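Usage

Read records sequentially. Each one opens with the input sequence:
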Amino acid sequence: MIQTFSDVDIIARTLYGEARGEVAKVGLIALNAVASVIWNRWRVQPSYFGRTPREVCLKPYQFSCWNKNDPNLERLLTHHITDETYSLCRTVADEFLAGKGEDVVNGSDHYHAVWLAPPSWAIGKLPVIDIGVHRFYRLRSID
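and closes with the structure output:
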């Protein structure tokens, strides 16, 4: 079913799965932060993460909302998500695909929830910024 979604849908659904709960707490910056990570991963070419923003989002084990055991997955695969937060996700995805998105995480290409134990890739690394419950890191150069 994932193949039937457009690129903007995949990005919007990734934002929705990863950050929808943060919108009420910190605002649109939560969606822009995750979109920035997607964009920053895609900008590094040749990219380990994928040749397109869609591939970046769907690369296995990169965005937990797409993992088979994630409780968000069933909701993401529903064809019609109609709530207001998803509409905001679509708007942010459209802006980034049009090249108008703002990198609010200063080049970060990784993040994790602060309430989880840091993943192995984060140990010994300095975070760039915390936004809501997410801590962001720049592990690869985008210059």
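Summary fields computed downstream for this record:
- Residues 2-103 form a domain with the Arc Repressor Mutant, subunit A fold (CATH 1.10.10.2520).
- Residues 24 and 58 are 26 Å apart (CA to CA).
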